[in-house]
Backbone:
């Protein structure tokens, strides 16, 4: 089934640890995004990539990094997790020239 | 910076009544306005969208209206059913000039309860 796969589904992490959230899509969409969802704040963009090999900063990029080595994969890394990064993280993608987002199932991250 | 304001944050209606959620946006270059529905524990899913060259769009029980002059758009759900209970997000999407692609800003969400 075509779509976006995120892993892990859920993770509890000690503060200071490094964590990578994985995102893979098989729709050949050029653009990919990482959002975090917090109660009362909606979905906020962390980083994006318009095409393989390029990335850009969103609204809340501090403490996060991304890479886009190929079209399908867009991992999000927390180099040294802090409790304020406790959130639900959604990966999304959109086809070239269109801004209709398709979301993954989300990754719930708790930083203690 | 650009933002999208969404009201109300919570809405409770009786089954069969109508529900209206309103959003305003700040970036006049925004040209695409999607609405997403998120059920508890699930991913956001697109339910309807409207582009800036259209004032209204309808799909069965849901409709969206856009007033570009006022930078205001609304979601209307008629004949609400218990399965409409969810969180609804509006969003405004703007082309990124120079860098390519689009920037989509979301509202904070409206939690809709439909009482049977």
Residues:
């Amino acid at each position: 089934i075509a779509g976006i796969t995120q892993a892990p589904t859920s993770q509890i992490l000690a503060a200071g640890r490094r964590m990578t959230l994985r995102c893979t899509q098989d729709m050949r969409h050029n653009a990919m995004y990482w959002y975090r969802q917090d109660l009362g704040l909606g979905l906020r963009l962390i980083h994006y990539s318009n095409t393989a090999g390029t990335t850009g900063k969103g609204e809340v990029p501090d403490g996060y990094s991304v890479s886009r080595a190929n079209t399908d994969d867009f991992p999000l890394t927390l180099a040294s997790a802090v409790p304020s990064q406790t959130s639900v993280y959604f990966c999304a993608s959109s086809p070239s020239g269109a801004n209709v987002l398709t979301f993954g199932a989300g990754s719930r991250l708790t930083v203690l | 910076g650009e933002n999208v304001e969404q009201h109300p944050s919570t809405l409770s209606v009786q089954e069969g009544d109508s529900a209206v959620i309103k959003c305003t946006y700040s970036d006049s270059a925004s040209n695409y306005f999607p609405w997403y529905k998120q059920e508890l524990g699930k991913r956001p899913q697109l339910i309807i969208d409207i582009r800036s060259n259209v004032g209204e769009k309808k799909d069965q029980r849901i409709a969206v209206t856009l007033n570009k002059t006022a930078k205001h758009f609304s979601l209307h759900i008629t004949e609400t059913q218990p399965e409409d209970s969810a969180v609804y997000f509006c969003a405004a999407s703007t082309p990124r000039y120079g860098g390519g692609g689009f920037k989509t800003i979301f509202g904070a969400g409206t939690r809709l309860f439909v009482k049977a």
Summary: Residues 3 and 25 of chain A are 6 Å apart (CA to CA). Chain A has a mean pLDDT of 94. Chain A has no helices and eleven strands.
